[in-house]
Amino acid sequence: MVRIEQVHSSAVERVGRWVVPRRLELAVTYCEVTLDFTDAVIMHDTLRIDVGMTGKTLTLVTRPGIVIDTDGLQLVHSKVKYRQIPTDPDTPVTLRVELVGQKAHGRVVVRPPRRTFGQWLLRRSPSLPSGA
Question: What's the pLDDT at 119?
Fold first, then answer.
């Protein structure tokens, strides 16, 4: 299990190549938290995130095959914004992320990776190869 503990006005990021643990505990107050699964090394089929978070935003950046389950998350003056890009329905689920615990006074944002400037100009999603 990995525990992330921060208090007041800082930012916690897991981006690039990082090993996804089986369990992650967030104990943060008024800190931005970003977990980017785009290039993450996935060793298990399920990640349970125990959330104890007050204020600011928890951002989960996903890729095809990653499913986020927020059913076990208690929201107190918070909201969830879940934005997915269209994917092939035959795409296998490689990681199921279960959010449990409490998120108070802030947001949970689940989104795909941002497009590069070239993808934006060509109106392409990040999941398509540049030659498609």
Answer: 63
Measuring CA to CA, how many Å separate 100 from each of 15, 43, 66, 88? Answer: 22, 20, 17, 28
Question: First vs last Cα of the chain: how many Å apart?
Answer: 40
Tokens matching residue 126: 């990040």
Q: Is residue 31 part of a domain?
A: yes
Would residue 127 count as lying in a domain? no
Predicted confidence (pLDDT) per residue in 5-53, tens digit? 877 778 899 999 999 999 999 999 999 999 999 999 999 999 999 999 9
CB-based contacts of 42, cutoff 8 Å, min separation 6: 20, 94, 95
In a domain, 43, yes or no: yes
> Would you say 96 and 67 are in contact if contact means Cβ atoms under 8 Å apart?
yes
CA 84-86-91 angle, to 5 degrees, is 100
